[in-house]
Amino acid sequence: MTTRPAHAAVSDRLPEHHALTAPRPNPLLTVMRWELRRSLANRSTRILAVLLFAVCVALLGLSLQQTTFDLTSGTGGPGGPTRELMAVVTRNSLFGLTMLLPFTLVEFALFLPFVTADGVSLDLKRRTHELLMTTALPTRAYIWGRYFADMLIALGMACVYLVALVAVAVTLHLWAGGYYPAINVPGAVVFWAVLVLPPTILIGSLCFALGVLLPHRSTVIKAGAVFGWLCIGLLLQGFTYDKVRNSPGFAVGNPPAWWRAYETWQPTNTDSGSLFTAQFTHHLNAIFKNLSLNQQAMQRQVETLQGQLPDLNSFMLAHLVWIVFGLAAVAFSSLAFRRFRNVVV
Amino acid sequence: MELEIESLSKRFGAQWALRDVSLRTGPGLVGLVGANGAGKTTLMRITGTLLDPTSGAVRWNGRETRSHGGELRQVLGYLPQEFGVYPEFSGRQFLRYLAAMKGLPDELARRRADETLELVNLEAVADQRLTTYSGGMRQRIGIAQALLNDPELLIVDEPTAGLDPEERVRFRTLLASFTSSRVTLLSTHIIGDVEAVARRLVILREGRVIADTTAEELLASARGKVWTVEVDMATAARLQSAHRVSALVSRPDGMLLRIVGETRPHDAATPAEPNLEDAYLLAVGTPAAVA
After folding, report:
1. For a surface tag, which of A113, A241, A271, B204 has the fewest beta carbons within 10 Å of its beta carbon?
2. Chain B stretch 43-62, residues whose beta carbon is closer than 8 A to a beta carbon of chain A
3. Which value does ipTM take for this structure?
4. A66 has pLDDT over 60
C-alpha cells in the first residue's frame, strides 16, 4: 500500500456537501436496481435458474409424454340406451394442463424460499448489515427495495417455469405432431398467470417477511416453508381427495361444497386441478349424454372443450386475497424492522 | 461540527457494557483506547446509530441522534471492527453500491468510488472480485467506503486489525491526513495506532472512562514510574507475577524487563523514559491516577 497524498482527494471535500444538496436518487429504486444487479451477478442465482429449468423440463416432459387419457361414455341415462364411445383428451391441452400444472407447481414453489428468505438476513450473515445501517438509506426503502428485487427474481423463476412448459410442449408437437397437438400458448399463459403467480407471490412474500422478522432463522424458515408447502400441497391434498372421491356427485363433476371451498382457498393450488377437472367433467358429461353424436362428432366437441379456459372467477378472488395477505406480511415486517436493536452484538 | 455524548450507559441483560460515559468533541481525532471488552465497540455502535442506549444521549450538532438518526447518517462514515463484503462484486462495484446506498447520485458515486480507491491505493485491483482480496485489502476497502460520502463524523473501530505492520504504519499516515476537518472517533487496543494522530485519548475500562487526556499528559503522568531491570529467569518470573510488565526481552543470561509502577520494583531497576504504552498500562492499572 503506497500512500498517495491523501489530502489531495479527501480534503477535496464536496462543495457544501454536494452529496446532500443534490437531488437524491429514489432510494427504493436504487436499492432495487443494485439488489437485482447483485443477485444476477451471483452464481447461485444462475445455478438455481438452470436447475429449475432442468427440473421443470424433466417433470413436464415425463408428464406430457403420457399424452392422452381416455374417457369412456357408458350410458345415455337411467333406463335409456347405452353405448361405448371414447374421447381422447391430450395432456398439453388446457384441460390436460389442469392436471399437469398444479402437480408441477408444488416442485416449483419449493425453489422460492431460497430466492426470497435471505433478502435481509443475508446482510447479517455476511456482516454487511452495519455498513448499510449506518448509511442514510431509509429503512422502508431498504426493506421494500429488497423485497421487490427478490420478487422480480422469483417472478423470473416463474417465467423459467413457463418457458420450460411451452418448450416441452412445442418440442413434443414438433417431434410427433399427430400425437401431440400444438399447445394453446395464450391460454397456457393465462392459466400460468392465474395458477402460478399467486402462490409465487404468496410464498415469496411470506418467506421474505419471516426472514426480516427472524433474520437469524433463515435456514429454519426455508426448511419450514418447504415442509409446510409439501404438507399442504401433497399430504393434505391426498387426504381430502380420499375423503371426497367416493362422495355422490363427484364422478359427475359435482363435488361437495366444502371441498369446493377448500380447493378454492387452498393456497398451493395443487387441488385447483381437481376443481377445474370437475368443471370439464361436468361439460363432458353433457356431451356424452347427447346420443345424437357419433364418435367423430363427439371427439370434435371434446377437442373444442379441452381448448377452453375453465371458469376462474371464484378462484381469482381467493388468490387475490392470498396475494394481499403476502403483501400485508411484508408491510408488517417492514414496520417491525428496527435499525436500533441488538442484532449485531 | 460537534459530537456530544452525555452520560451514556448500555446494558446487555445483567451486564453493563457502558456506564455513564460522557464526551464532547469538535473536529480532530479522538482515540478510544481500552482492552477487549472495555466497551469501545458498544460506544461506537451507539454513536453510529446501530444500538439504542439504555440511558443517556448522543447529540450531533445539538440534535439527539436517537430521534434524528437519519440526519447523522447523512454525514457519517463508519468502519466496523468486523465487516463483510458481497463476494459477487468487485471492489469498485462494492464502493459504488455503498455510495448509492448513502444516497449519492450516480455520477458522484462513480467519482467518489474512484477517488477513494485511489486514496487507499486499490485502483490496480479495483475490478477484481472482492473474494480475491487479502485481509489488508479488504480493510482498505472498508476505509474507502467510510469516506465515500465525505463524512463529517468518521467512526473507525479497530481499523488496523488484520493489517500487517507496514500497512498499519501507512494507515496511520493516511488517517492523519484527513482527520483535521472532521470529527473522528478511532477505537483501538493498540496504543501505537493513535499515538501520533490523536489530539485526545479516552481510555475505557469495564465500560467506564478512566482517563480523558492527551498523549503528552499521559506521558507526563508516567514519568518516574517506568523501570527497566535485567534479571535471571527465576527473578523475572517473580517480578512478572508481582508487577505490571510492559515489555520483556530475552537475553543470553536472563531477561530484560520493563516494569511500570509507582515504586522501584527491584534493587537493580533503573528509571526509564516512559512511552505511551507504559503510560497507558499505568492508567489502566490505577484508575484514579489520571482521570
Report:
1. A241
2. 45, 48-52
3. 0.87
4. no
